[in-house]
What we know:
about 200 residues, mainly alpha
Amino acid sequence: MENYLKYLKEYLYPLRNYIFLACLIFVFAIFYGYSVAQTSPEEVKTMLDGIKKVYEPVFGMSPIAQFLFVVLNNGLTLLFIILLGLVFGVPPFMALLSNGAVLGIVAFFSKQTFSWSVFFLGTLPHGIIEIPVLILGCAVGLKIGKTLFNKVFKKQGEVKKELSLALDFFLKALLPLLAIAAAIEIFITANLLGV
């Protein structure tokens, strides 16, 4: 355990500026999404209904199947976000914007339809893990993008090494946390909301 904490500290410390940037982008996106939902509620509701329709088959699965689906879906999505940091960090940036905006939109409609307590009950139990994992994954992707930028334009930086470290961090830290978040979402959050 001590070695694991040391490993996390050594990997996360050089990532601190990227984590801070990722947090800023995500928070901005939440407020942006909330604002858009206020000004264009019908259009945004149509978008949310579309997203809900895509995931409708998942709701009919058994809890174990739902858990496996969520872990696989979230894990692969985050892995691609990290690896696509190679496109100069643009995909991680867009992932922060889109996920933050959707959270802001959901917050608006939860407040309008139910209450703030329902929103927090539906997002906090698993979101307290899932959101930081998303932010960390995107921060890793942003760092990979910056490393590639430095390699291309400044002839410095080790992209292969950065990718190797990122994959190691994904497998050792991010994926297990996503599995915990998925378990909370399927087996606890769903029961709290009576889904």
